[in-house]
Amino acid sequence: MKTDPLTPTNLSDRPPFQGKLLIDGVWAAAASGSQLERKSPAHDLVVAVYAQAGVEDAERAIAAARKAFDHGPWPRMKGAERAAVLRKVADLILERKQALAEMETLENGKPLAQSLAEIEGAADLWQYAATLARNLHGDSYNTLGENTLGVVLRDPIGVVSIITPWNFPFLIVSQKLPFALAAGCTAVVKPAEVTSGTTVMLGQILVDAGMPAGAVNILVGRGGVIGDVMVTHASVDMLSFTGSTAIGKAAVAKSASTLKKVSMELGGKNPQIIFEDCDWDAAVDAAVYGIYFNAGQCCNSGSRILVQQTIAEKFVAEVIERSKRVKVGDPLVAGVQVGAITTEKQLETILAHISSAKEQGATVALGGSRIPGKGMYIEPTVVAGVTREMAIAQEEVFGPVLAVLTFNTLDEAIALANSTLYGLSAAVWSQDFSTCMSAARRIKAGTVWINTFLEGHAELPFGGYRESGLGRELGRFATEDYTETKTLHMHLGTRTDWYVPR
């Protein structure tokens, strides 16, 4: 039944979303009967109630995925058959995008327009993964001699544990799950407990699209309880995780006992390097957009701008003026650009980073405080006078807080860009091709944008250097990450005996 679009005035009439666990194709309550509630960070209203999984539920979900992989139809389907299901999922996502976007906004706090764009982008990832389901292939060698033929196969790796964060709940699960499914894997998925709604809704879409029972299982619960089971269980063959670097490191360490394959998309402290010959308006806009998009709660956030000294004062002044015009408020209101901070813990973390920057000698040139009233909102914040050794230049703030550093030469800019433990993304702004290419080649990051920022395409790999992660998502090789390589070494005709009797 079609319902009216959600607005601040009719929000109180909306009953909380009721979410259960999807295990072996059946929606079920938790074995313990436990539940958890989620309040909207923007409205302080309960917007969802979930069955809260425990260890027993996690073990049942893993067993279901194991059975579905070892004995079920999904890994044995033709690539074209798997592709058809993935395309159906994409179609259903678009059909239900309004409901998905509203759920995302209520739980995450981001503006509804941004949630809609995220859902549409996620549908495109499912469509792209469908093409890879038909194109995954191995290799062959007929150059090994007339009696030898070599064939290299790509087998699905097996059961994949997928753990996703709260900042882009639907997009990030869509960067992982469809590619694992395209390869023929089965999965257990755990979204962040504070933003589980869209992933649970995706579970119903998968059922409606014809996904076999047990091929995808969805759990809602605490990372320290069910996440640990998913990371350490011997029946899980691979872990795909997106989240903070600290938690990612812990997950890798815990998974080591079973030597399962890991894919990690972790944190970033991403620089935008602004040279004096930049396209001024575009670079200023990118600096503002790069830090305030999704309230700065983005691993790719442009949280550092490195500005050439000759233009620094003027450039920063313009960034501050535009930042003052950024509209912060209720994410259900049209025109709002920055919504609520997703969790109380994250709000406290952001404010602590701002306080620390002041203590270390930086200047809060704009904002820096929580906005009073209902909901968890922070002012757009610009911190100037930052030097490379300060924590705010090194650590991921994950909020609408821009750190400004300056440089004189290209070499200084590169040294600053590479001066953190991260290496997820960066941008270079100059109208000189040689400057752009020289900088892009020397920056240690998985993505470098040139005269643009925060653009993404399904065809282009995504991931980071150093402590920003392990492996890559998206791109034409994305499904290969969810496979094992097997060599068939075939001998033709009579084989010469090694043992020759005297």
Write the layout of secondary structure elements.
Blueprint: E1 17-19, E2 21-23, E3 26-28, E4 35-39, E5 46-51, H1 55-71, H2 79-95, H3 97-108, H4 112-135, E6 139-141, E7 148-156, E8 159-163, H5 169-174, H6 177-183, E9 186-190, H7 197-209, E10 216-218, H8 223-232, E11 238-242, H9 245-255, E12 261-265, E13 271-274, H10 280-292, E14 304-308, H11 312-324, H12 344-359, E15 363-366, E16 370-371, E17 377-378, E18 381-384, H13 391-394, E19 401-407, H14 410-417, E20 425-429, H15 433-442, E21 447-450, E22 469-470, E23 483-491
Parallel strand pairs: 1-5, 8-9, 8-11, 9-10, 11-12, 13-14, 13-20, 14-19, 18-19, 20-21
Antiparallel strand pairs: 2-3, 4-5, 6-7, 7-23, 12-22, 15-18, 16-17
